[in-house]
Design a protein that fits this description.
single chain
Length: 256
C-alpha cells in the first residue's frame, strides 16, 4: 500500500533537503563525490540539485577546489522565524549592556540539530575582544554553553541530540554514563564554569535562559579574554553578572 509520504514525494526536493542536512553536519566543505558518498547516492544524481542550491544562494562553491559549503541563507531565514527572532531582539540590549559593564564579549547560543549555534553576539568595547560569528556551529558536548543546553533539555530531546552526535557514539558505555551524570548538577545550578575550548587557559561561563526542559531555552555565555585593555573583574563577579543578565532576559521573554 502506498503511504502518503511516498505518494506525494518530490525526489528533487528530497535530494536538496538531504544535501542541506548532510552539509550542516560537516565541518569542512565537501566535493560532489563526497556529498554523494555521504548520502549513499550516485554523484550524477545530485549534480543538478547542487547547481540549483548554489544558484539560489543556499550553497557556496569554492572556485579552486570545487567543494561546497552552506551559506548563511538558512540561518538568515531562521532569524525571521519566531521564537528565535524574538529571542534575539529581547536579548541583544541586555547583552550589549553586559558587554560594556564587564569589558568582555558575550554570546547567546541555542541548539541546532546536534550542535550549538551562536544566535546573538555582543562585542566588548575593549580594543581586543573575542568575536563569535552569528550562525557559527560548535560541538554541544564539548562547549560550556552546549552542556548547559544539553543538561536543561527534556530527556527525549537530549537523547535525540546525543544520538546524532558522532563524538558521543565513540564513547564507551561508562563514559556515556559519566556524561549524563555530569549534566544533573548543571541542570540543578542553571549554569556551568568550565575550561574554554576557544581560549587556552581561560574559563568559560554559561547560564541558562528559560526554564529547565522548557519549550525554548538558550544559554548566555562568556569566554573571558585577558589583555592589558580588559577590565579587571573577579571571576565570581563576572559569573554573577552573567546570571543576572540571563534572568533579566528570561523575565522579559516571559512564556516564550
Amino acid at each position: 500500500m502506498t503511504t502518503a509520504s511516498n505518494k506525494y514525494a518530490v525526489p528533487a526536493l528530497d535530494k536538496g533537503l538531504d544535501i542541506l542536512e548532510y552539509l550542516v553536519t560537516q565541518e569542512l566543505p565537501k566535493s560532489q563525490t563526497e556529498i554523494a558518498q555521504g548520502l549513499g547516492r550516485n554523484p550524477n544524481d545530485i549534480y543538478r540539485v547542487l547547481v540549483g542550491l548554489e544558484a539560489r544562494g543556499y550553497l557556496v562553491r569554492d572556485e579552486l577546489s570545487g567543494r561546497y559549503r552552506l551559506s548563511l541563507k538558512l540561518y538568515n531565514l531562521s532569524r525571521s522565524i519566531s521564537p528565535i527572532d524574538q529571542m534575539r531582539q529581547c536579548a541583544l540590549p541586555y547583552m550589549e549592556d553586559l558587554a560594556v559593564n564587564i569589558g568582555q564579549s558575550c554570546y547567546l547560543a541555542m541548539l541546532y540539530q546536534s550542535q550549538t549555534m551562536i544566535i546573538v553576539h555582543a562585542r566588548g568595547h575593549s580594543p581586543i575582544s573575542l568575536n563569535m560569528s552569528e550562525g557559527s556551529l560548535f560541538p554541544t558536548m564539548t562547549t560550556t554553553a552546549g552542556k548547559v543546553l544539553l543538561a536543561n533539555s527534556n530527556p527525549a530531546v537530549r537523547d535525540m541530540i546525543l544520538e546524532r552526535d558522532a563524538d558521543y557514539a565513540k564513547l564507551s558505555k561508562n563514559k556515556r554514563t559519566a556524561l549524563i551524570n555530569e549534566l544533573e548538577p548543571i541542570k540543578q545550578n542553571g549554569y556551568l564554569a568550565a575550561p574554554s575550548p576557544f581560549i587556552e587557559g581561560a574559563t568559560d561561563f554559561a547560564a541558562l535562559i528559560g526554564r529547565p526542559e522548557g519549550k525554548v531555552i538558550a544559554a548566555l555565555a562568556i569566554s573571558p579574554l585577558k589583555s592589558h585593555w580588559s577590565t579587571a573583574i573577579a571571576q565570581e563577579e563576572l559569573h554573577t553578572r552573567v546570571v543576572t543578565t540571563a534572568n533579566k532576559i528570561a523575565q522579559q521573554l516571559g512564556d516564550l
